[in-house]
Specification:
Blueprint lengths: L8 H10 L5 H35 L1
Length: 59
């Protein structure tokens, strides 16, 4: 059974599986969201590294 207070999408997926709902669409959306967040995180890390390198180069 889905719980109204469950905020984590993975918890919702697990509850949905238990109730035998079709979760394939939700699982795909979660995978896309994770990939997007990972890409954004990597882009920010790269940007931070470039900024640090530029600051070090300026002395």
């Amino acid at each position: 059974m889905l719980h109204a207070n469950a905020k984590d999408p993975l918890i919702l997926v697990e509850h949905a599986r238990a109730d035998q709902f079709d979760t394939s669409g939700l699982e795909a959306e979660i995978k896309i969201a994770r990939a997007t967040l990972n890409a954004a995180s990597q882009a920010l890390a790269n940007l931070g590294e470039k900024g640090t390198n530029a600051a070090l180069a300026m002395g």
